[in-house]
Prior knowledge:
Blueprint: H1 2-7, H2 12-47, H3 57-78, H4 88-189, H5 214-227, E1 234-235, H6 242-250, E2 254-256, E3 263-266
Antiparallel strand pairs: 1-3, 2-3
Helix pairs in contact: 2-3
Amino acid sequence: xxxxxxxxxxxSTTDVGDVTDTEEELIKECEEMWKDMEECQNKLSLTxxxxxxxxxxxxxxxxxQMKCLTAELSQWQKETPEIxxxxxxxxxxxxxxxxxxxxxxxxxxxxxxxxxxxxxxEDLEREQQWLDEQRQIMESLNVLHNELKNQVVTLSESRxxxxxxxxxxNIKEYKEKLLITMGEFLEDHFPLPDGNVKKKxxxxxxxxAQLIALHDILEILINRLFDVPHDPYVxxxxxxxxxxxxxxxxxxxxxRHPEDxxxxxxxxxxx
Length: 271
């Protein structure tokens, strides 16, 4: 483009001034034409305020359009706009001016887009760094959570096991004490017929050779109740002294079988 400008006539500056004057004249003529068109439009709008019947609506619209087009055609026929001469130097000057303006606009757009891209890159890097930090924190928290969970489960299970074991030992000790206390009480207050308080009687009269103590009878009934809960009845044998059986039945400690009076069971006090 610089080579073409050097080849132009030295009077090109004068031509540029002529082009500028021509542009100003065209602008003035356009403004005058615009004023004439506004006047025509005002006249048409005043004409269109007449009341129309339903049967003449389409015809009236067509007439108004025809008047508008006729007025516009008449206005254009009166005007004879001047045509800019298509000289080479004028075209080069106008093209150079348009190209420079377009180049300037494109450079502005490019600068704006580059600034936006830089800003977006910075935002993306900052968000990516934040995301990586959050992921690391999440991984650390997950590891810590799993460790604490396993530790809590282990401690909880071991503590519960130890507590249950301690309770079982205490219950066994308490059971042994109850059995010993009950045995001593029964031996003192419910001895066998000969007055001997031992559990089993041997080397005495033949009639009481097979009798057992009251606490032995109760122990048999208790073991039967818990070992065979679906059939807790025990057969009354010759070793059970009848007064003891009657004592248990009268006081509701033992119950007789509803169909077999020779069988008894312990009352289920624990239910």
